[in-house]
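Hi support team,

I've been running sequence recovery on a batch of backbones for a student project. Most finish fine, but this one hangs at about 90% for roughly twenty minutes before it completes. I'm not sure whether the input is malformed or the queue is just slow. I've pasted the structure tokens below so you can try to reproduce it. Let me know if you need the job ID as well.

Thanks,
M.K.
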């Protein structure tokens, strides 16, 4: 299946927000720079997710706060740099124009995650997608902070801190 990105695509999405600036010498925020797939890909992801949840009720559900997306880069940045990062990513988006980019789904992946399995849909790595991702990484590299912690992540719905595994995942994100 070939899908295209939504017009609103590739706007920097801050999925994880700083929760306690006193916990770090220099406060960090975790970012997920992502592409939003078109309605057809979202529909497919939701259908696949529903089938998985039929067999595993404790699974991860796509919902209003957990959207199907394509992560381009996950990293930590200093909160003092956030305005520069937002403006710079917008410039990269304007220059590379990922909205309308056609991507082909190629299959599924599975990865163990916190005693469960995480499944996702894979896409073909097109020259346009790789060029866009390289431009994002080239811009972001000077802003990426190492050793982010759960202090930079949104807490769980019950108010408890996010999981250390997620913090470690963002620290080691690769594409």
């Amino acid at each position: 299946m070939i899908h295209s990105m939504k017009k609103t695509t590739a706007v920097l999405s801050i999925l994880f927000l700083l929760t306690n600036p006193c916990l770090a010498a220099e406060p960090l925020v975790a970012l997920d720079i992502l592409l939003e797939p078109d309605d057809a890909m979202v529909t497919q992801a939701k259908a696949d997710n529903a089938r998985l949840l039929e067999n595993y009720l404790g699974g991860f559900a796509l919902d209003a706060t957990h959207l199907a997306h394509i992560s381009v880069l996950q990293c930590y940045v200093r909160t003092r740099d956030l305005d520069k990062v937002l403006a710079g990513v917008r410039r990269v988006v304007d220059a590379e124009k990922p909205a309308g980019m056609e991507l082909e789904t190629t299959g599924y992946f599975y990865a163990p995650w916190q005693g469960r399995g995480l499944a996702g849909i894979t896409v073909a790595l097109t020259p346009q997608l790789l060029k866009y991702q390289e431009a994002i990484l080239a811009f972001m590299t000077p802003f990426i902070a190492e050793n982010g912690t759960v202090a930079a992540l949104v807490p769980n719905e019950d108010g408890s801190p996010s999981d250390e595994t997620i913090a470690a995942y963002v620290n080691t994100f690769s594409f």
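--
Follow-up from support: It reproduced on our side and the slowdown came from queue contention, not your input. The CA atoms of residues 12 and 160 lie 26 Å apart. No action needed from you.
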